[in-house]
Give the backbone structure.
Amino acid sequence: MTASRASLDLLYSDTEEELRSAVRALLADHCAPATVLARAESGRPHDTALWRTLASGIGAAGLLVPEKLGGAGASHREAAVVLEELGRAVAPVPYLTGCVLAAEILLGCDTPEAADLLRALAAGRQVCVPALPLTQAPGAPLPRPLRDTGGGALSGTVTSVADAAAADVLLVLADSGLYAVPAAATRLTAAVPLDLTRPLATVTLDGAPGTRLADPATARAAVAGALLSGAGLLASEQLGLAEWCLTETVAHVRGRHQFNRPVGSFQALKHRLARLWLDVASARAAARAAADALATASPDAPLTVAVAQAYCSGVAVRAAEECVQLHGGIGMTWEHPAHLYLKRAKADSLALGSTGHHLGLVADFAELPAPA
């Protein structure tokens, strides 16, 4: 056993539990399922008031940002707790894209311009979103960079960019490096996403002005590191989603009666829910292992993240499917929030790499190549 695995800590600290309580209370007040559904139907799912309170009021936006840059100087473990709670509420806020992926990219640049953006991000004054397809996976080739037509004027198109509609600044990977581009200087074409709470858009740049943040080699390394962190912390969002589905389903089958007895007392349903509980408990261990490996910069982090994503994606989808099915007819209605969780789970299973991609990474790391 390596030293990093011997010191693996899957438990939540008192500080993490206090952070969880604060975020859960905020979401209980401002992010009820009916509210999320109403915003999704409006075509403007992002809740800017909730985002301001979460980002600057609680200080969640700057968890991964060092204190010298105005952040909390916390770690991936704390960010994972926030994502668990956001997953439980399918909250329509750009946390994964803005406070994990963008923050990690900017930290990897290590330039004064990137530091200025990090200060604004940590204070909640600006939302930065990477102009990358949501399906871009760690360990996969990066997309073809956009063209720098001269003097930082960028041209090209990026599809399936998550939360671009909420962004003030887009982080754009170009052939001459990484650039910060004002969102207002780009053209956004909304896509039709499966998950209405995390909108997608095609971003088109036609000579858009950008501020150079890093050279090409540094930029690609920063993006690669951010994708690894994002995939690892996405597992915590999937865990929170699965926990909500399990809790709500258990509550429903306890209260729903057939043949003068709770349907949850039927043995077949007991077996299904017991299996789902075991799946969720295992997902918690996998997600916490990934967050801890990232927080401690463990050399096993790529493997741990791949394991967490390969497992938690499937658990989140199964939990959401069971939630819909075991709620019976009401679970199939638009008014019940179960479909929001199923759609988020399905979309998350493709975000930052599919289950098959991460299983392939696990096989590569374990030196077990797939059969020819």
